[in-house]
Each structure stands twice: as structure tokens, then as C-alpha cells.
């Protein structure tokens, strides 16, 4: 649950956040309203795309590719 609070805080600071979760559903409605995207009963597959940085990951099912930030923030002020 702490990870979801961190995700909600990141969204509140203007970041786009996607949570890939192996559990069937473990989320409160306020996390969805905050703008966090979820993929339940999923895990990252073998395909991780990008050469110098991760640009996307393919889910284990192989049916969907999830984009990743190509320009991470190296410092976040709280």
C-alpha cells in the first residue's frame, strides 16, 4: 500500500504513473481518481525495450506494451 501512496504523490506532482500488479485487484477508488493507471493480474514479460534507457515494457501476456519515461527526473523536491 505504501507504493500506491507514492504513486498518488507522484501523480499529484505531475508525473504519469502506471502500476503493474500481480494481484487481482488491490486498490482504493481514490487512487483511480488520482489518475494512476493499473494493470492487474499482470507482470512484466521478457521484453524490455530501449537501448540506453527503458522506453517500454511488454506485459507477460504479450498483449500490451506499457510506455516508460525516457527522461526520468533525477531529483524530486518534497
Task: Report how far the terminal alpha carbons are from each other.
Answer: 20 Å
Structural class: alpha+beta
Strand content: 15-25%
What order do the SSEs take from the amino end to the carboxyl end, as H and E?
A: HEHEEEE
What is the CATH domain class?
Alpha Beta
- In total, the number of domains comes to 1
Helix content percent band: 10-25%
Mean pLDDT: 78
Cα-atom radius of gyration: 13 Å
Tell me, briefly, the overall form. flat
The CATH superfamily is: FAD/NAD(P)-binding domain
**Discrete helix count:** 2
Strand arrangement across the biggest beta sheet: 3-4-5
Second-tier CATH architecture: 3-Layer(bba) Sandwich
Q: Sheet with the most strands?
A: 3 strands, antiparallel
Amino acid at each position: 500500500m505504501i507504493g500506491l501512496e507514492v504513486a498518488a504523490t507522484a501523480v499529484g506532482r505531475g508525473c504519469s504513473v502506471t502500476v503493474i500488479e500481480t494481484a487481482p485487484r488491490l486498490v482504493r477508488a481514490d487512487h483511480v481518481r488520482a489518475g494512476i493507471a493499473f494493470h492487474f493480474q499482470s507482470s512484466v514479460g521478457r521484453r524490455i525495450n530501449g537501448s540506453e534507457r527503458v522506453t517500454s515494457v511488454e506485459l507477460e501476456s504479450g498483449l500490451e506494451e506499457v510506455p516508460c519515461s525516457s527522461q526520468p527526473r533525477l531529483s524530486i523536491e518534497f
